[in-house]
Amino acid sequence: MDFAFTPEQEQLRQEVRDFIAENVTDSVRAEVEDAMDEGHGEEYMKLRAKIAERGWIGISFPKEYGGQDGSRIDQYIVEEELARVGVNVGLSGSGGPAILAAGTEEQKQYFIPRLIRGEVTFALGFTEPQAGADLAGLQTRAVRDGDDYIINGQKMYTSSAHYATHIYMMARTDPDAPKHKGISIFLFPMDTPGVTVRPLWTIQNDPPAPMGTTYGMGRTNETFFEDVRVPASSMLGEENMGWYVGAMGLNLDRVGASRYLISVRRDEDIVNWVKENEFDGHSPSEDPEVRDRIAEMWIEAQVCRLMTLRSMSIVEHGGNFTYEGSAEKVWAPEHGVRTTEGISQILGPYAQLLNGSIGAVEDGVFAHNLMGSFQSGINHGSVQVMRDQVARRGLGMPRG
Ligand SMILES: Cc1cc2nc3c(=O)[nH]c(=O)nc-3n(C[C@H](O)[C@H](O)[C@H](O)COP(=O)(O)OP(=O)(O)OC[C@H]3O[C@@H](n4cnc5c(N)ncnc54)[C@H](O)[C@@H]3O)c2cc1C
After folding, report:
1. Ligand 1 and 389: CB distance under 6 A
2. 20 to 30 Å CA-CA from 47: which of 15, 150, 209, 351?
3. DSSP percent split of the chain into helix, strand, coil, nearest 5
4. Across the strands, what pairs with 232?
5. Nearest-CA neighbor of 157 among 201, 93, 91, 188?
6. Hey, which of 384, 386, 388, 399 would you mutate to test ligand 1's pocket, going by the most ligand atoms within 8 Å of its Cβ?
7. pLDDT-above-90 percentage for the chain
């Protein structure tokens, strides 16, 4: 196995770095920091358009749908460099890979180019009050009525639903079938009559996380569906096969740099902070325990990076991708918790003070990162459920 990037890939990396130096201004960065909770502002969208113009978004998507028919590794290089400045242009988690795999030609023609251009974004409507880890227990109903379906029910934790253009949601289409078999997926605009979004504020919002926080969102939502009429053509995949389409989509969404990339900026921020600051006239980087801890963190980050590259390589070479994404989804969030806890121990009690408190380190950024790091172990499939998938699909153990 050759781990080296090609000269062309190194050149691409340099081009992205030059682009960042020229275009990612402080005002863009300030907007990017807000984007997670409030949607994208004008400056961010202009920047995103410039990135898309260069063909750097959706590189590995087919040309006929606005991509480049290019390599996932090239895409990864672009995403990794932009992640260093907090800009996420990855399409893993966008719904794009599932639409490409299971969508009709019309859905692919409509959604994929718009996802690449940033004109369409999806909120994920899977979880319900009584269906989280046990997702197949969901109760939101979709009933066929002529050429339409009528949807009624409630979703929980629909992050980004307050600014996404569309929802990618699961509903029960056959209540009499075994619970995994009567579910379908629908894609439709958020402004469809009968859809109501209410905020669910998280601990990250009290007080709102300061600029520079890399982990966790301050707001997610609950979304209600009351007699929401959608055309039958908004179904993704076959009727009652939504469980399998959804699981495949979530798995494909895990192929990509997003999990590892959350840690890139945070880990580098920590190393830089430790090198650049002094306590009692000494840099923490001179302390053997601190050095050990930071080195350990860096080694863990490299494991994360290699797991990411392996996943992309498997998919790029047409391999069978089953449990690898689940393994990453355990390692990366728990790495996040370990490093944010580690930095908190290195910096001592002041690092736990939130913004607004006297003596808060870096205006509470590290305290918010510590709190926010736990979210990633829950959203998009909890680490407990992911471990079960590794045991079953990777190690051939029976269902837990
Ligand atoms: C910040 C955030 C954002 C989110 N965004 C979205 C989103 O955009 N869209 C969406 O649909 N959902 C989203 N979620 C929901 C997320 O996917 C669920 O919270 C998650 O699946 C767990 O479900 P639950 O909260 O109902 O917990 P429960 O299902 O009640 O589980 C509670 C705990 O028990 C563990 N557990 C449950 N069953 C088992 C088992 N059989 N074996 C071992 N452990 C088990 C779980 O892992 C968890 O730790 C988000 C969640 C968070 C926190």
Report:
1. no
2. 209
3. 50, 15, 35
4. none
5. 201
6. 384
7. 56
Q: How confident is the model at residue 337 (pLDDT cuts 50, 70, 90)?
A: very high
User: Which atom of ligand 1 lies nearest, measured to the CA of 377?
Assistant: 53
Domains and CATH numbers, the chain: 7-90 (1.10.540.10), 122-240 (2.40.110.10), 254-394 (1.20.140.10)
Q: What is the mean pLDDT of residues 165-185?
A: 96
Count the Cβ atoms, other than its own, within 10 Å of residue 158. 26
Report the separation in Å between the CA atom of 40 and the middle of ligand 1, taken as the mean of its atom positions. Answer: 26
Q: Is 155 exposed, middle or buried (0-12, 13-18, 19+ CB in 10 A)?
A: buried
> Is pLDDT at 325 greater than 90 in this prediction?
no
How far is 34 from 254, CA to CA, in rounded Å?
24
**Atom 23 in ligand 1: residue holding the nearest Cα:** 132
Question: How many CB atoms within 10 Å of residue 126?
Answer: 24
Between 336 and 90, the more confident residue is 336
CA 181 to CA 389: how far, in whole Å?
19
**Residue 28 amino acid letter:** V
Distance, CA of 135 to CA of 389 (rounded, Å): 14
Q: 0.85 cut: is pTM over it?
A: yes
Q: Which protein residue's CA is at the shortest distance from atom 45 of ligand 1?
A: 384
Name beta bridge partners: 5: none
- For range 221-243, the mean pLDDT: 97
Q: For the chain, report the end-to-end CA distance as a whole number of angstroms.
A: 35
Tokens of 164: 């996404």
**Which of 94, 134, 140, 157 maximizes ligand 1 atoms within 8 Å of its Cβ, making it the mutation to test the pocket?**
157
* Nearest protein Cα to ligand 1, atom 48: 382
